[in-house]
Amino acid sequence: MKSLKSIAIVWEQLAWGGVDTFLKYLLNSQNFSHLDVTIFTNDTNKGLDRLKKSLSNKNVKFVKYKSVFGLEDRGYFLKILLYAFKPLIFCLSIMKFKKLFSNKKYDVLMATCGGYGSFRNEAAAIFAANRNNIPVRTLWITHACTHYPPLMGGFLKLINHYLSKTLSSVISTCYATRETIFNKSNLLDRDYLHEVVIYLGIPHVEKDLTNNFFDKYEKKDGVFNVGMMSRIEEYKGHLDLVSAINLLPINYREKLRFFIIGNGEKKYVEKIKNLITNHGLEKNFIFTGYLNTEYNTILPNLDLSIDLTRSNNGFGFSPAEAVSLSVPVIVTSVGAIPEWLNDKYCSVIRPASIIDIKNELVSFIDKNEFWKKRAKDAAIYINREFNAENMASNLIVHFEQKLNELP
User: Fold this and answer.
1) 252-285 pLDDT, tens digit each
2) If we measure between CA atoms, which residue out of 309, 153, 147, 169 comes closest to residue 228?
3) How many angstroms separate the Cα of 213 from the Cα of each of 54, 225, 294, 320, 402?
4) Would 285 be classed as within a structural domain?
5) Is 178 helix (H, G, I), strand (E, B) or coil?
6) What pTM does this model have?
7) Interval 315-354: pLDDT, tens
8) Cα 345–Cα 256–Cα 238 angle in degrees, nearest 5
9) Domain count along the chain
């Protein structure tokens, strides 16, 4: 019986987000504490320092490499040039990873990515791992797959065809993500390619009430602190929230104070602030920026957490973290959310529904004791069913199963 000893992880991204959160929870789990882990990542990855600072697992090593990922944003002509040469860049990336992997033997190569569908260095790493004889090669996809980009569909279909023959398995974080891969790509076109859904999980942590980030804002009796904790992007639904608050009767509006926790592009942040000003809601909203600390020091200071994502959101770490700490939650029914959350544990509403947001805020105020009781039941549920140790254990079982299938 072969056991898993070493794993190489390829992780490429620009801004911090869900994948570095997933890696933090996975690598800090007790089940991963004995493994030799090497993470290969691009040197422009803004989530790297965030991950390093939060890791308690000392067996994790990092190898940084140069990548053209993200250079498309540096000018129109460079974007066109890079797009035209993407097939060549992809082939060169295979050679780059082959060299990176040559210094050590690994049992498993796990390439992890948010969305899938275009040219990905994670896919190049899979081909390189095959040539370097890494026995188990897995692609872990955490967000929805996208359609092929213009003019590149034929080449990408060819890549996916051979990739599906090279992979040991494809892991999706929920059935919603799996369906997008099946419907928007030919990655799963090999009947005997092992595909599996492994839900993400969060660690069981206690509330940390030693630092109340909201003390500097005057607290009024009878006013609830409500938070949206995420990157500020259009699909996250901040504008929906502002429009919903504008519909609230004044006596309800006066009982709610909203903290927008996170950063975003200046132009879009200004768009949200302008809408707030146009509706005369300045007293209801506070922008904190990104708070560089763990979620268990922020969320306990909130009476309600809101996640209004409009499109596929993978697993949904933000609502999961809030639920685990007994914080009442309003969340949209996107991605994996309907697979693990329902009205028994929190308020699950339609995406982009301003009326639903307004109605649930009214309910939160009118039936606050019910909301708090429901949140306590939800914490018991998620800490039992969707914890990081379960996630890590399921992943190790999967890898060892693939290892022992080999001759």
Assistant:
1) 999 999 999 999 889 999 999 999 999 999 999 9
2) 309
3) 19, 12, 12, 21, 46
4) yes
5) helix
6) 0.89
7) 888 999 999 999 999 999 998 999 999 999 999 999 999 9
8) 75
9) 2
